Amino acid sequence: MMSSSFSSCRFADYFVVCGLDTDTGLEPDELSGENFEQSPLRRTFKSKVLAHYPENVEWSPFDQDAVGMLCMPKGLSFRTQADPREPQFHSFIITREDGSRSYGFALTFYEEVTSKQICSAMQTLYHMHNAEQYDILHMPSAGPPASLQRFNSYDITRDTLYVSKCICLLAPMAFQQACRKVLEQLHQAITSSQPPPLPLESYIFNVLYEVPLPPAGRSLKFSGVYSPVVCQRPSTSELPLFDFPLSDVFQLLGVENVLQLFTCALLEFQILLYSQHYQRLMTVAESITALMFPFQWQHVYVPILPASLQHFLDAPVPYLMGLHSNGQDDRSKLELPQEANLCFVDIDNHFIELPEDLPQFPSKLEFVQEISEALLAFGIPPEGSSCCGDGVPKLTGFRSCDEVSDRRNGNLAGSPFNSFRLKDNETIARLQALVKRTGVVGQLGCPLIAAHQKVQCEEDELQTHLLNVRLREIFANRFTQMFADYEVFVIQSNQDKDSWFSNRDQMQNFDKASFLSDQPEPYLPFLSRFLETQTFASFIDSKILCHDDEDKEHTLQVFDTRVDKVRMLNVRTPTLRTSMYQKCTNIDESEKAIEMRVSKIDHTALHPHLLDMKIGQGRYEPGFFPRLQSDVLSSGPTGNKWAKRSTAAHWRLRDKQRQHVEQLYLDNEQKHIQEARSLGASIRQPNLSNLSPSVIAQTNWKFVEGLLKECRNKTKRMLVEKMGREAVELGHGEGSITGVEENTLIASLCDLLERIWSHGLQVKQGKSALWSHLLHYQESKEKDTPAGLSPPGKNGTFAFGGKNIGEIKTDVGKARAWVRLSMEKKLLSRHLKQLLSDEELTKKLYKRYAFLRCDDEKEQFLYHLLSFNAVDYFCFTSVFTTVLIPYHVVVIPSKKLGGSMFTANPWICISGELSETVVLQVPKNSLEITFECQNLGKLTTVQVGHDNSGLYAKWLVECVMVRNEVTGHTYKFPCGRWLGKGVDDGSLERILVGELVTPTSENEERLCRTPPMQQSPSMIRRLVTISPSSKPKLNTGQIQEAVGEAINGIVKHFHKPEKERSSLSLLLCGEYGLVWALEQVFLHGFRTPRLFKNVFIWDFLERAQAHFESPEQRELEQDENWHTRAHDFCRFMRAVNSTPRNIGKDGKFQMLVCLGARDHLLHHWIALLSECPITVQMYEDTAMIKDRVLVNSLIRVLQTLQDFNITLEASLTKGIGI
User: Fold this and answer.
1) Mean pLDDT of 1093-1108
2) Model-level pTM greater than 0.70?
3) Less packed terminus of the chain by CB within 10 Å, N or C?
4) Where in the cell is the protein located (predicted)?
């Protein structure tokens, strides 16, 4: 039943004629934005739909406004006999509100104007125009004319006037090559000297009513006016139907540019295509979206944007649109409302402008190489050639003579390869040599087809099909490889469908963090952003909704079959992280399927025949497309065998819907998904039928609502992820955000802010609307401020000094840096509120419908952003790594023993995750210093010390405070120890490990100047004092727990993604870190020393070293392992003792523990020391180090560190040569 019902669906729905309506005469087309200073022949006039057949079909209602606008997007144009009048073909697409599509194929040609009134009207327009030009020329102020139109370019007595006319087929599926042939043969019939074999009505009737759609996996032949037309349709196991020549796209743009454009489409940037040729716009748009298989573009899609809809470029949503260029204006004259997130593609000039921060597509070099090999096999240069005709695939080598003639035609830019040069690419040079050697390419660069197969379609048509399928398979294979395990990470819902739809926004449908943790590192920048797109979310939604293969939509079914095949071949485990590039292996199979279909035609349609027309109808008039007989074309046949099978209209309707499912991947579930996810139906497509102010206002209101919803969802997602991660660090639950992912979410927030700020702009200034607004605000405040006062927040809070951000050259980059900095300072909402508080400025910059002038929505938007203050971001510090940043340091001495008599000269050295400072001298009278250096990143350690000069060189330091003056982050480095000879452990310098101080709201502003005095830190002193009971002693159970917690912290650190790890120094040397925990082990049961004498763990370790190095020990018969351990221990002790640094005994113990952890030796040393005779002398019998069971337990815990590669910060090991 299915095959017969499919074949009952018609090849074409409508035949349309558009052109000049002689009854209404010449109407200027104001909407197309043409300039009335141009000569009348260069102006555009309104075109009309003159006729369409049939009147209406129920499954595809005729939209007269949309069809008229897209058949002739620039309206009517006039020519004289002196102008070129070549016919032009282009295709277009009409997307209805429910997401269903119709394809249009239009051929525009010129006919002589026979109406005397029209010729006279044109003459009159010229007289008026010439008079105006004369006045301008003779005005006293006029300089030399820039470029005068030629006078009297139309003279009614001398010139023949021609006007454009368009014939068009509207079809349910995009059989572009077949439709083009039908139209070209119809046009040939009216321009040839001989009349066609039958009246034109016979051929049009045939294609409308007697030619069915080919069933899936079959080919169909039907008759054109002069030659047969063949079309073939892929089977349900092949890639979906696509009939536009990909060769044109690669010739026009080159592989590198196509891949960049493809990446922009996947990441849902706004994409604007720009060309003089409508067909190029359509071919590039359709190709890029087809290559996205199995994913589908989810946003505004208007490959040909009619001139009357140019206000739609203001849309603050992702879009893919095509804009017609007149071939005269260059890119700089094109005023676009927003460019921050825009990918601008100048197709004719082989040029692409990319948004900033575009990540690289995974395995890009190998991917480019594989695509290049495919192109070279068909004689197409991978760098592109700009010499392809519009939609006519000429799969031949690139010849220099073509380039010369094309340059004359003005189609080629002066330097066509100015954006990317692949010519010098060694890989491609090698490939070209290989192709020549192996003779893969025939004389003209086409792969040779087996001679025994008789091909039913034209050779170049077959080549187009074969190259298309080869390239599409290569692209599809990339996703099959990248997402081979995607099903494992889909989060299936246990709700019923209705509940699922109503809660869709609150639900996660894919375990992104786990998926990303399995991916090779180089893939992460792209994949982390791609997983956040609506494109990906909709794909996963459709997977969740299709529980069994019966339900699956066509695309998903094809993709899942391929994924299963890859998994079977690779037998790869879901946890395998490999970036091994695997080439496409199923090209041959796909090419064979096409060759089979075109060598053996499955179906032949009825031939055109004479219709029941009245005598005298169908008269032939050379050069003119006739007025067709509507009575014979308005309804289909009733007598032929095919019609009998499809009399019921509801069958046709059902077939139509079914065929839409396959073509557009839209079934009812998919529509539900789109309803659940979309920003509103009318946002997806501009309304072509109604351009009234109320409809435009309604569309803009939808945009405002959509932006607010997007803002709410984004802030919520970012907070849930961030708080989830922070909760894990506090020991609750599991974390799911990675550094890459966080960066992605912030980048997408920056994109959203740019779209909000560019919605409803009065006049565009600069590429970033947000930065432009900030500059305007600053300027207005500077004007209003009396001399000597700076505008509010000028110094580092509201704006930041340009000198610090020298690496950022663009407005978009500056705006993003400003957003990141404001987020890091927890001031984003406050700053934007301040910016928008100047209502006069906002009114001056924005139209009434703009988002920023909708007060309620604006308030809600700022409220959502306020929620970011609940979490800590380092999104500025971690990204702008080379900027110069001022740091303010305060050393806080103990208040009791304040060191007012302190005579030595203090110094400090600060280390962060990115780099460290040189040694900085601190003035001893103020103990404060401000200095500027390259971004240190998150601060980790401070080395503080003095030169031991003067009479009183003893200094009790409470803590050190360091403040980043750009981000406002303040770090506290607790010390609570003496620095000086003969006091404490005799140290002259200490390494302090710090943590970020969370400012309270009261002291938030005070921190901006000098960090406040902090209370003494609760550090446990690392020495045995004269009153051991002054600190509570820990029992063996508590010590074991402390060691376990410290080791656990390190293990968790290494299980996080690399970019998300916190400071390892803090886990080793910070409060309750590994050094402190092992200190408790060695302090337990340490014998009480003599009065007034401090004994340190280091003293015990030095005595143990002396014991191991004694001659008696060396002579003892011990196993080799023991000797190795003892030798290592002594070697490290010597190295630490010989360091030139004055770090004291506890500092040396810290250094030894860090080195032992790094080299995985701690458990060996504990075993060694527990059996050492010195331990017996210096420890009580109850000491932990003497308990065999507890020591074995400790050794087992320390052995877990062997699995990790511990890298120490330079400040911890400075001066050590091991």
Assistant:
1) 80
2) yes
3) N
4) Membrane
